[in-house]
Description:
The protein is mostly helical and 96 residues long. The protein has a single domain (3-93), classed as Arc Repressor Mutant, subunit A. It is 57% helix and 11% strand. It contains 5 helices and 2 strands; from the N terminus they run ααααββα. A hairpin with a 6-residue loop joins β1 and β2. α1 (3-18) packs across α2 and α3 crosses α4 (52-64). The radius of gyration is 12 Å and the shape is globular. The two termini are 21 Å apart. This is MarR family transcriptional regulator. It comes from Labrys okinawensis.
Amino acid sequence: MSEEEEDLLATIEAIRRLDPRLSPLDGVILAAVTLDIADDTRSFARLFEVEHALVIRAAHELTEEGRWLDVVERQARTQRTKVAISPAGRARLAGL
């Protein structure tokens, strides 16, 4: 396993420990945005081989419940959604 993969897994675990309600997919999305791996739903879906609709749903929930993410841009035709860590999310992630 590469160092980048180890960093990603460690970040996912740390994020999920912050809030046990986060699903594994939520943890991966938040880690990917935090580590600048992917900041939009389509790129994330392709990179991690997850259905785009599932990523959109999870990202949408992360913008509402607990306000982990903010929507930066949404393309109406493709539903591709660009996200960023919200101020509340940054505060929670500050200790990582």
